[in-house]
Write a structure and sequence with these properties.
The chain is α/β, with parallel strands linked by helices. The chain is built from 6 helices and 13 strands. The strands form 3 sheets. An 8-stranded mixed sheet has the order 1-13-12-2-3-5-4-11. It has a 3-stranded antiparallel sheet with strand order 6-10-9, with no helix packed on it. The protein starts with a strand and ends with a helix.
């Protein structure tokens, strides 16, 4: 069996999963104050950023419980402006989330009007304080961002993916997501002193990757080209899913997360699986999945998508 989708509130569904049973979590929770599913208990309709952050910490504390000790979390988060609706352009015609119900503009007295709320970093620091290791802030650069009717700031063209781990050492297959080396074969045999990542088992028989001081050369990829360690800016065009619910992230955005964070036949968790993007990518890459979704209509869309991926 490739996987399963659980119906219900993320926090409630997570409590039913066993400790240390998941290899990797890849997810994008609902943005604060931007979408109303019309379902009681949904995430994102909290009155203040602080309330939203507190709920996120509670949910991802459960995620940390179900992760294996060598597990990782890849968390995609978008931001918003106080009183403006922030990334609301994504909900317009042709946008990433066209057709999804949009909540009214959120305003909090804690911030000034037009302030950038800073949700991604509020969440990242709160999770760090709760025990997560904050390992990387990856920039999702959108080459096709939605136009914004603003003239007093740049148009928003990025989101964050935070790589977090449960322990200091964790599973991370850097070879699976290497980029083509910019300078090619002529630099392939030149040694560096930056060190390299080496996989080794620890006393608990948990595979991990640790930094060493060894010299290394550029790696040769399976297609004969030369590769380098993946950078932290990922340029990926938005790609809405053809259905009533549009995927929060395109498949090509999260494929590196799943390849690097989960071994073959491992289990990937997405507690906000929506239309099933994570499940589809898992099936393509020989991983199993567990998804959670509060909206029954989206579950049906995800199941249809999974059937097509398996066929």
């Amino acid at each position: 069996m490739n996987g399963i989708i659980l119906s219900g509130n993320a926090l409630s569904a997570l409590t039913g999963l066993a400790d240390r049973s998941i290899n990797c979590c890849v997810t994008s929770p609902p943005y604060w104050g931007l979408r109303d599913y019309g379902v009681p208990g949904q995430l994102g309709l909290e009155k203040t950023p602080e309330e939203y952050t507190a709920r996120m910490v509670e949910i991802f504390r459960e995620v940390r419980r179900v992760l294996r000790d060598d597990g990782t979390l890849w968390l995609n988060l978008g931001d918003s402006y106080n009183g403006s609706g922030g990334a609301g352009g994504d909900y317009n015609k042709g946008g990433l989330k066209e057709g999804q119900p949009k909540y009214g503009r959120k305003f909090t007295d804690i911030l000034k009007p037009k302030d950038l709320v800073g949700i991604p970093w509020r969440i990242a620091f709160a999770l760090q304080a709760d025990g997560w290791y904050l390992r990387s802030d990856i920039i999702w650069h959108k080459p096709n961002p939605m136009p914004e009717s603003v003239t007093d700031r740049p148009t928003k063209a990025h989101e964050y993916i935070f790589l977090m781990s449960k322990r200091e050492r964790y599973y991370y297959d850097n070879q699976a997501i290497m980029e083509s080396a910019q300078y090619g074969e002529q630099h392939a045999n030149k040694k560096t002193s930056w060190g390299t990542n080496r996989k080794h088992p620890n006393k608990n028989n948990v595979s991990d990757y640790a930094f060493t001081g060894d010299n290394h050369t550029t790696s040769k990829l399976s297609d004969g080209s030369y590769g380098r360690n993946k950078r932290t800016v990922w340029t990926v065009a938005t790609k809405p899913y053809k259905g009533a619910h549009f995927a929060t992230f395109p498949p090509s955005l999260i494929e590196p997360c799943i390849k690097a964070g989960c071994p073959n036949n491992g289990i990937v968790l997405d507690p906000f699986i929506g239309s099933g993007t994570t499940a589809e990518v898992c099936i393509r890459n020989n991983k199993r999945f567990i998804g959670i979704e509060i909206n029954s209509q989206y579950i049906q869309l995800a199941l249809n998508r999974i059937r097509k991926a398996i066929a």
